[in-house]
Structure formats: C-alpha cells, structure tokens
C-alpha cells in the first residue's frame, strides 16, 4: 500500500468510529450504517483528490507479492 492508500483507509476507519460514537450506534444494523457513512466520507475525499491531482490513488502495489522467505530477516544463531 502507498502512503495515500493508508491515509484514506485510516480516514474511513476514523470517520466510521466518530459517526458510530456520535450516533450512539448499538447493534449490527446501526454500526453497519455508520460504517457505510464513514467509508463514504473516505471515498468522496479519495475521488476528489484523484480529480484534482489527475491520478489514481489505488495501486497494484502490495508487499505480500514478495515471497515470505525473502521478507524475513535471517538471524545467525
């Protein structure tokens, strides 16, 4: 993930938390609705930045593509 992908993910999470707290969401349905609203906030912000910057925020970059044995630090015991 890129820095911007992480930022917009965090914005979605923080927005959801704030909305759920302020609406005193209880139970699955109320929290689901808060989640939809929170991620909508993040989506609108992402689309606005993409429009103004002229480039996509989402990328194919993924640290998991590297094999596990290449990611690990080898220790000499």
How large is the radius of gyration?
A: 18 Å
What helical percentage do the residues reach?
55-70%
- Judging from the principal axes of the Cα atoms, what is the shape? flat
Number of helical segments with 4 or more residues: 3
Number of strands: 0
The string of secondary-structure elements, in order, is: HHH
Total of domains: 1
Described by strand count, sense and barrel closure, the largest sheet is: none
- Report the end-to-end length measured between terminal Cα atoms: 33 Å
Into which percentage range does the β-strand content fall?
Answer: under 5%
Class computed from helices, strands and strand pairing: mainly alpha
Give unreliable regions as ranges.
none
Mean pLDDT: 88
What can be said about this structure in brief?
This protein is mainly α and 77 residues long.
């Amino acid at each position: 993930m890129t820095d911007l992908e992480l930022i917009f993910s965090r914005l979605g999470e923080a927005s959801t938390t704030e909305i759920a707290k302020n609406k005193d969401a209880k139970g699955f349905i109320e929290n689901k609705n808060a989640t939809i609203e929170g991620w909508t906030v993040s989506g609108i912000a992402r689309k606005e930045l993409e429009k103004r910057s002229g480039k996509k925020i989402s990328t194919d970059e993924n640290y998991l593509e590297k094999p596990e044995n290449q990611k690990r630090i080898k220790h000499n015991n």
